[in-house]
Amino acid sequence: MDPGKFLLFATGGLADAAYLFIVAAGLSLVFGALRVINMAHGSLYMIAALVSVVVANRLGAGIGFLPSLIAAVVVAAAIGAVIEVTVLKRVYGHEHLVQLLATYAIALIIGGAARLIFGPNYRTTTAPVQGSLTLLGYSYSVYALVMIVAAALIGVAMYGMLFRTRLGRNIRAAVSDPELLNASGVNVTLLYTTVFVIGAALAGLGGVIVAPSQAVDPTIGDSVLVLAFAISVIGGLGSIIGSAVGALMVGEVISFGLITPATNSFALAFVFIVMTLVLTVRPWGLFGRPES
């Protein structure tokens, strides 16, 4: 393989890893603090993508991107708050199967509502940044590079939030000992709602970022949820660093899996082969911890 082609597929893997990391980070954050496996996470991603496309197309792709981003993330966060307050508070501490069934039911409701509101057809919008760069004989989308930079900045911001702020300290304390945290005067109920809203906003942000680069419809949440779970399992549920590493692995595996017609049909299979190998060696993931 010539260096130009290798760089092309490597950059494509980074672009895929960018939005997958944002989505998976929200999933891992919720599981780490709340110990809830949220099957509705992909639905929040889907709703935000659809909202962003509608708003951006109404206002114009260039000038409308920022308003569409804000609107979509606010909608995803608001739906997340409603889900946490009305449903999840009732299943904390229950078996994961109960949580899975509850959040899967929510996903079905959101999916049905999205089909009624937006219709079943695909929608597209134009990327806010146009153009391409040529390097070593291959063209690279400028927006794909913007996605990579945005994901890196979001990752740094999340790390700073978790390890440099009082909210982050409380979240990490809630993971270790929520009873002691509650006894120390922290409103754990409000903290849990805040964490879930942040996770929902991250899912929405992932949907907004990816929307200009692909067609969106009410079914896109299903595939991204599967990949987000694979990333979280590989990196370790509850680990933001694990989400970054897992997203990088999955993005590159998918990208290089498309390199030849012979491997094209098996690109997703390679992801689950990697996941199986990781689980065989470390059942709790590369950066996760065994659940007590």
Indicate the topology.
Blueprint: H1 3-34, H2 41-59, H3 61-86, H4 96-118, E1 132-135, E2 138-141, H5 142-164, H6 166-176, H7 178-183, H8 188-210, H9 220-235, H10 240-257, H11 261-264, H12 267-281
Helix pairs in contact: 1-5, 1-8, 1-9, 1-10, 2-3, 2-4, 2-8, 2-9, 3-8, 5-6, 6-8, 9-10, 9-12, 10-12
Question: Would you kindly provide a written description of the structure presented here, covering whatever features stand out?
Answer:
By secondary structure, this protein is mainly alpha-helical. The protein has a single domain (3-281), classed as ABC transporter involved in vitamin B12 uptake, BtuC. Helices cover 74% and strands 3% of the residues. The chain is built from twelve helices and two strands, in the order H-H-H-H-E-E-H-H-H-H-H-H-H-H. It has helices spanning 3-34, 41-59, 61-86, 96-118, 142-164, 166-176, 178-183, 188-210, 220-235, 240-257, 261-264, 267-281; strands spanning 132-135, 138-141. It has a two-stranded antiparallel sheet with strand order 1-2. Helix 1 (3-34) packs across helix 9 (220-235). The chain is globular, with a radius of gyration of 19 Å.
Helix proportion: over 70%
Query: Any idea what the radius of gyration is?
Result: 19 Å
- Describe the strand arrangement of the main beta sheet, using strand numbers: 1-2
Kindly report the CATH topology.
ABC transporter involved in vitamin B12 uptake, BtuC
As a percent range, the share of strand residues is under 5%
Number of helices in the DSSP assignment = 12
Task: Characterize the main sheet.
Answer: 2 strands, antiparallel
CATH class: Mainly Alpha
